[in-house]
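pls ignore typos typing on phone
uridine-5'-diphosphate + seq
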Amino acid sequence: MRILVTGGAGFLGSHLCERLLQDDHEVVCLDNLFTGRRQNVMHLTSNPRFEFIRHDVVDPFKAEVDRIFNLACPASPIHYQFNPIKTVKTSVMGAINCLGLAKRVKARVLQASTSEVYGDPEVHPQPETYRGNVNPIGLRACYDEGKRCAETLFFDYHRENEVDVRVVRIFNTYGPRMLPDDGRVVSNFIVQALNGEDITLYGDGAQTRSFCYVTDLIEALVRVMEQEETVGPINIGNPDEFTIRELAEKVVEKTGGQANVVQKPLPFDDPQRRRPDISLAKKVIDWEPSVSLDEGLDQTIAFFRDSLGIA
Ligand code: NAD
Ligand code: UDP
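k done
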């Protein structure tokens, strides 16, 4: 198949492009390089089945494709809050442009939605039926509400125009090729520890997250796209839940035990708990994560040691 990956030069997108090429597909990677990097896909450019297009999903685009994975959107709070209006446009206009294209060329289109649609959840763990607790006017709203509106568009195009859609809600995912200055917790802690800086724990570190390693996530994305049982939404993530303090302690231990942990103010609207209920994914795509946090952290630390040139 010929497959379009928007946001293909980003962290998840580049791993997805790589996987789709391994599966013998043709891949069109579209990205405006806001948080993505050419280096992430440089090793794919010699493959004649790979094509990179620098383009912003806010503007319409054309491509003769069978599948579209819509991943274009900054995912880290510091990046999506850098220009919040642009973040909303990217989610909403990007969804409309992907859905319009899918409708014209009769492609199947998958939306990379997020656990942020659940906001600061009052139901734990979060099943897909939970409607969420999002502050619509807070600092995180540009991302959360943008993604919620994108889901709305996906379901309206599906009902009104019979567009063949899939929606996945991705929970915190980490691994090699996150940006060192990405701002998300796993990359922040590892880079700080390797550089001999203090580890910045926001709040008391009692808030929880559930961390999925990138290879597990990519496997799930590919399976959701090709299954016929449901359009979604389907939660994809690792149900092993850790406090952020536990994560900090693991990173300290795995990087030599020298780093100090310092407390910083908790950002406004920071969700207190997050863990996916993945019963639906288990049933529909026969999937659950196979990489533990310990294994995944080892791989990610090795990646950052290498890319930062730290022995
Ligand atoms: P990322 O920031 O590394 O990737 C996003 C990519 O989209 C980047 O390459 C960026 O340059 C590109 N992009 C941003 N705005 C664009 C625009 N207007 N036009 C074209 N390209 C644009 O983040 P990621 O972690 O790889 O996330 C990929 C997708 O998965 C995002 O949609 C994100 O919301 C979703 N997601 C990720 C996670 C996670 O934990 N990694 C969790 C939930 C959802
Ligand atoms: N966090 C932290 N220190 C950091 C970066 C993040 O303690 O340097 C915390 C953050 O407050 C949140 C959790 O780690 O509670 C996950 O943050 P991230 O930005 O990775 O993801 P999200 O909040 O979007 O789930």
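Residues 153 and 229 are 20 Å apart (CA to CA). The longest strand covers residues 108-114. more later
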